[in-house]
Structures are given as C-alpha cells and as structure tokens.
Amino acid sequence: MAGRIRQCVLSLRNSDRKKFVCYSWKRLCASTSAQSLPFVPQSGDATEEDVAQVEDFVSKSKRLFVLTGAGISTESGIPDYRSEGVGLYTTSKNRPVQYGDFLNFAEIRQRYWARNYVGWPRFSSFQPNEAHRVLSRWELAGKMHWLVTQNVDTLHYKARSTRVTELHGSAHRVLCLSCHHKILRNTMQEHIKALNPDWHAQSLEMAPDGDVQLTTEQVEGFKVPECQKCGGVLKPEIVFFGDNVPKHTVEYVFGRLAESDAVLIIGSSLEVYSGYRFANKAKEQGKPIAILNIGKTRADKIAQLKICARAGHVLPKVQIRS
To answer: Where's the Deacetylase sirtuin-type domain (predicted)?
Structure first.
C-alpha cells in the first residue's frame, strides 16, 4: 500500500500532495491498527445508540460493580481461550494445565515452568489498552465502586486501578504450596535462569496466562526451582483449571457486590462459574446488569443491556454523568 501511495503522490500537483498524503496515511494507520488485533473476534462497530445506552447505564449508577474477562485484554495482544474463530480453543491444540496434574506429576510441573519461562518476557511486557485506562479514570472520578477481573495479567493495576480483586490470582506472583512463601514472578525467572544456564527454547504461541507451546524434546533437561525457604513446590498464584477460587476471595467479592447498585460485565462469556456466580447474585439482588462483549454470554438472558462490540471502541466514547 505504501508503494501505491508514493506513485499516486508523484502524479499529483504539489498543492494536492499534502492533502493526499494525510488522507492516505490515515487509511494506512487504520489498516495497520485493525491488523494489530489478531485475537479480537470480528464485530461491527458500536453505533451512537450503543454508546448512548452504555453511557446512560453507567451514569445512573452511583456505585458501579465491574467484572472483566479476557476480552478486555485481547486488544492489548493477549489471546483468550473461547472467542469464536480466534480463541486458543479454536486455533491451537495447546490446553491449560489442570490443577490436579500440576500437583501430582513432576513432569507436568517441568513442562509448565519451561513453557512459562519462555513466555514470561513477552507476557510480562504487555500493557493496558484504552479500555483499562477508562476504568481507571472511572475509579478516580468516584463512579466505579469495585472492579473484579478474571484475568491474571495485572493490566488493571498497570492502568493504575486500585479498587481491584484478581478473582483468579496473578501470574506476577509465585506461591510455595508447602510454606506459602511468596515471591515475585520476576524473581522466579532469575531462579530458573540460574538453574538452567545452558537451556534455551523458543515459541511464538502465547496463552492468556503466559504459557507457550513447546515440544517434549524442547523441555528435556529443564530444571524446576524449589522453594528457597522449605524446598516445596512452587506454583504461580493463579487459579488453575480444576481448582477453586479461595472461599475468602469469593466472600469478599460478594461483599463488594452487595454494596453496589449496578453491574457492568466487560469481555467475558461467563462460561466459568467463578465469574457467572456474581451476575447470578446480582440478578437475585435486583441489580441491573449490562454486558459489553463480542459474542454470547451465559448471562445474556438476565441482562437489561447487551452490546456486542469491542470494549476499546465503546468505553472511550462514554461520557459519565454524575
């Protein structure tokens, strides 16, 4: 496209070139922007009416409860599992590790940490997008009472939100399953590197929790660090598939929900019960529910408002009113 632009520019009079270049550059940037969202499923642009409805819903709330899922982070370049056509369940044979397998099999822990070690530099570098930043501004404005995220990417904290509960934990922390000592994931990276100075592997695939795909041959020889306090098994402080969200976390979130007057769900299909339970409880409490998500969700039938569009396209246009 850039070559065609140059040929067209050379054929124009000097007085027309500037206007043409500006117009064509905007077209090129728009095209590049669209191509840079490979993990966002196709959807139509939100209409002015869509934005107005979200704006009206948010503005009527005085203590808004927000629940976010993987769909808010796909615009930052992190894939999800379930999105139609682009989710990893569709595009890859890679599957998340099961909690029981991680606990019971040393070879599963070896494979997990080898893949996570390779993926960590890229995963930890992802940055919040405009949807994350909008929610942070809503908090500063006193509009958002609490935010619960199903994501483990810490992007809400990077966007400077503070009233946040990470429902499924954070990939940025590591926990010893024996003595419960915690370290930062960056510290774990240093321990792994020191224990495996000559081990190297590469992979282009990325999962929502930072996992990548490696062959059995690539994993061979990889050594997994033990807890430096007690020698126990180290695990990311995230809720693996097959595990349960800690009871105290669930109770805490129910408390924040009880204090709220409306629920906005962003970027989540709510197929996992750990998130759906809060939508269901909101219905029981008579709280209005709005959903901003590409594709169907488990809570569509109980929502008063459903907008099928990108969060990064809708939220920046919402002007909250007190």
So the answer is: 41-322
